[in-house]
Amino acid sequence: MTLLDTRPGDEVIISTARTGRGAMRRLWDLGLLPGTRVKNIASHPFKGPILLKVGEATVAVGRNLASRIYVTK
Questions:
Q1: CA-to-CA distance for 48 and 28, rounded, in angstroms?
Q2: What is the domain partition of the chain in residue ranges?
């Protein structure tokens, strides 16, 4: 399952990401590391970003990137 498949209110754990170096660096900067628990706060319609709660921070991830982040419940 990918991060894109989650619904608002779902809490998941990031398992891996299949991205290039630049995108991987962005994920690390946002704190989206393997083993991190995140909560989907909102999934905006019309190809908008997905808002995630990571610890005390709220971050936005684009749908293209979210489709490459694999998670478990």
A1: 21
A2: 3-72
The mean per-residue pLDDT over the stretch 3-25 comes to 90
User: DSSP labels for 40-54?
Assistant: EEEE-TTT--EEEEE
Distance, CA of 67 to CA of 17 (rounded, Å):
9
Cα–Cα dist 42/40, whole Å: 6
Q: Report the CATH fold assignment for 3-72.
A: SH3 type barrels. (2.30.30)
Q: Using 50, 70 and 90 to split pLDDT, how confident is the model at 52?
A: very high
Structure tokens at 57: 């921070």
Inter-CA distances, 9 with 14, 26, 46, Å: 15, 24, 19
